Amino acid sequence: MSGLRELGLDFIAEGNWEKALACFAEAVRRQPNDHRARMLAARCFAKLYETERAVTVLHACAEGLLRRDYLLSAIAACRQALPLAPREKRIRETLARIHARASRMVGGKASVPPPLPPESLYDGQVTGDLMTLSGSDLSDTAIAVLASPDPGGQADPDARPPLPLFAELEVDAFVDLVELVDYRELEDGAPICTEGEGGDRIYVLVAGKAEVSRRVEGQEKRLAFLGGGSIFGELSLLTGAPPTSTVRAVGDADVLEIERKDLNELARKYPSVPQVLSTFAQTRMARNIVATSPLFTPIPEAERSSLLSRFVFKGLQPGDVVIKEGEPVSTLVLILAGELVVQKEDPAGGVISLSVLREGEVAGEIAMLKGLRATATVAATRKTAIATLDRGAFEGLLKTYPALREYLEGLSDRRLKQIGEAMRPIEVLDADELVVEG
What we know:
Layout (H helix, E strand, L loop, with lengths): L1 H13 L2 H14 L4 H13 L3 H17 L3 H11 L7 H15 L31 H12 L24 H10 L1 E5 L4 E3 L7 E16 L2 E8 L4 E2 L1 H6 L6 E14 H10 L3 H20 L8 H7 L4 E5 L4 E3 L7 E7 L1 E7 L5 E8 L3 E2 L1 H6 L6 E4 L3 E7 H10 L1 H22 L15
Antiparallel strand pairs: 1-6, 2-6, 3-4, 3-5, 3-6, 7-14, 8-13, 9-12, 9-14, 10-11, 10-13
Helix pairs in contact: 1-2, 2-3, 2-7, 3-4, 4-5, 4-6, 5-6, 6-8, 8-10, 14-15
């Protein structure tokens, strides 16, 4: 049915909303689970000043997507309906069912199935081709098709589809958040976020795919592909740093954007939200670090996640010192997001900057391994998230994974050499030694 959708999009480009409606409605008549066509048809109804029918179609669309467990797409359908009818009870009830569907197995929440959706007023029994209709005949026939239930698909009541962040919020906060988020439909190649720019929002890829890339030595390097349901941008949102990569749509893609100001507004209204956001960000950061940090490379992949339970998470403000030169060190520091600068006092006065540590790197390993006091000061240059491992847990980890000790000893040796080179006095040559004889 994608051919009918493409034709409908051509009519939209021409501003012919009635012809576009006929295309999308006919696509749904032939294939009731074509919910993208339903969403596009709702847009046509709205442009034709039939707001009530647009909301009705979006409601039917959300219910069908919920039944098939496409929860993010169901949220997107509700999000499009809310500006048209902010007080619409049935849309809010559907959102509550989406939340119940996603959160039924979250710890501490009752495992109660959501209520069944109300009976539909339309049965979709239309046999004629809608492409031949126009005016009120088209509108009346199209709504009978578009507002009818999607007969296929049924969610497994014992399964919980992943829906990070949204499911952990209380239901009223979830509904309010859906009202606040921005919904974007992107074409192939359109940027979702750009390396070095912004950093004030979380992105949720509702449908479609996206490519992640980063500039390396002046060239764009592809890092990964993301699929529907992916969430990204939370590290930049947490630390205030701009994104470290560019994400672009591959083909058509739908994206929800959650801005910092919206989360702040939500947090003022619901006291539980800050803790939910903090836990969400920590979980996401931990998962990323386990997958990418050299610290975990010597550890079998299946055992990495459980190790994070030994770490304590902490947020730093710019200027906060985590390790002070000359003082005892009692923890290994793992950087989750942000950056730390390593500096050493210069005997001649001032300080010498040795390096900048970023996501996945560690600090404090020299003192922890060799029983020394801190060889340098380590401080945050901007908002940074770290995880710390106390000495007892650190020593237990080394006993369990000898390869980890080898990695850290090699790292500490390289860093001690770097410190030695940085502190080596600069040789001063006599002026006569600069004369080259002919």
